[in-house]
Amino acid sequence: MSNTTVSEARTELDDQTELEARRREFGRQLIAAGLLIPTGIDGLYGRGGDFEAIIDGIDFAVRAAAAAAYDTAPRVLRFPPVFPRANFEKTDYIASFPNLTGAINTFTGDNKAHRALLADRENGVDWDGHLESAGTMLVSAACHPAYAGLTGVLDEPVLLDVYGYCFRHEPSLDPARMQAFRMHEYVYVGDAEGAAQHRNSWVQRGLDVLAGLGLDAQAVAANDPFFGRAGRMLAANQREENLKTELVVPLYGGLGEPTAIVSANCHQEHFGENFAITAPDGSVAHSACVGFGMERIALALLRTHGLVINGWPSSVRAALGMPQG
Amino acid sequence: MSNTTVSEARTELDDQTELEARRREFGRQLIAAGLLIPTGIDGLYGRGGDFEAIIDGIDFAVRAAAAAAYDTAPRVLRFPPVFPRANFEKTDYIASFPNLTGAINTFTGDNKAHRALLADRENGVDWDGHLESAGTMLVSAACHPAYAGLTGVLDEPVLLDVYGYCFRHEPSLDPARMQAFRMHEYVYVGDAEGAAQHRNSWVQRGLDVLAGLGLDAQAVAANDPFFGRAGRMLAANQREENLKTELVVPLYGGLGEPTAIVSANCHQEHFGENFAITAPDGSVAHSACVGFGMERIALALLRTHGLVINGWPSSVRAALGMPQG
């Protein structure tokens, strides 16, 4: 290793340490301001009133962009945070992201079994062994519960407006990496050309939404964090075929990678095949989606415009549908 | 058994069958109208745009009542649908309602363990054995995640505005018994007198909100569905001490018990003791809450005013903050 490389490595390490320190400091600031409320577990927070006002404002801006884009409004679907295991299976998420999943267990026993559970609990013994699968999973991506309703032959391409809570088990001190967060998605299901056009149109529309909020975002080719050795190939393939575009914003100046706050994706025939959805032309349906990461956009706004929303630029407050100071 | 008793028993059975039939029929109507979207599991539904508009409208009415009641706005707290196991433990919910709980499991293994999971999956074998506790639970009542943040000595009584998704594992064909639903709560934590006053004031305020929505609700003494033999004593005690008042509306005329759509509860020192919250006077804090069952109120509105929200009475639409037709 040459001296230069050692010095470069040291600088990278310093940067990493500095980045971690800045993330923690940002987290502390958010909590001190009452924007986030700690729960005792990394990546799980309550939200204060101002934080929710920002989320509602972002949703106002996103919906305005969709309303301007479509003559016929996309079909509104809202799902609870849990959905059937059978539909989760069809997403193949357990194959690609097992470490991020959330399976729901519950107690289905009788009085005697309950007494045994409580005895373990009293003795400080883990009581999970007394539970069984509830047949449900936490939603990993807002659009996942939507596909099962489309099984069959589509009369025409479908456009969905889906918004809900997502769960990903990745405990972190980085405020931008939450275990539970909201995603507002616009989903297209139809033919390959329509899917590509949907994804591409939302890259530009997403940039416009973010610019209206005073965020200087860039569109970059990206890949999902597929699990394990096999996952590396999937990730490389996703990049090579240009299936995922992220809109990213630097949260800490030049430190670390910029943070993805919007994601626009072509799924090719993945959901069409697994959920047996046939496009109007008789082929297996293609799909595409754009997902607005609501909490991450809120954090980008707070980093950019400050922690006091009353002091945000009037153009930004107007884009968020907030009353003018 | 006398003839009269046999005949009465037969009538009761007929009523029960008729009630089940009406519930299924209502469920079918809601799905046909696109208000609810079936997921393949009883009690788990997606929501259509009109259903969500009703939920937003109910929230508008509830918030208006709270705004009129308080000079100082209650503190807004919004929690995701999962919260730490450690805080769930302090609610004692696993002792009283084990059958309703939802524990989160996830995969924490390596490549090899993942291959073993996928092999089981491929062979149609249940793969839950490859998962471990994620340290989190689904939220059973909207207020549960709020108490951990109050541990310590309160300077003054606390008033919280909490709204979120709740999970209760009770699969049912009754549309009014969902596994995932939203609850908007106003929570008081302070002294015993303040808690009783909070509960009582919200019984009347709740009735007023519902009357404004054109719902003819009654306040009745009630108890929670505590689990098992020991639970029967807890339920009797709750009724005897008048700790739970439900606002109920008949959904199917005189058939079956009317449905609870709002619940006002005194918790006595339960949460104060378990979360170590001390009232300003130095005693263990008492708490009380009112919970508006958003989905159930929506269903009561749909039963009462019909499935087409554009046709609802203008006074009801005004109370819901909906534009006038």
TrEMBL record, chains A, B:
Enzyme Commission number(s) from the entry: 6.2.1.n2
Keyword Signal: no
Aminoacyl-transfer RNA synthetases class-II family profile domain segment(s): 81-323
GO molecular function: ligase activity
Keywords: Ligase
Highest taxon of the lineage: Bacteria
Protein name: Amino acid--[acyl-carrier-protein] ligase
Classification lineage: Bacteria, Bacillati, Actinomycetota, Actinomycetes, Mycobacteriales
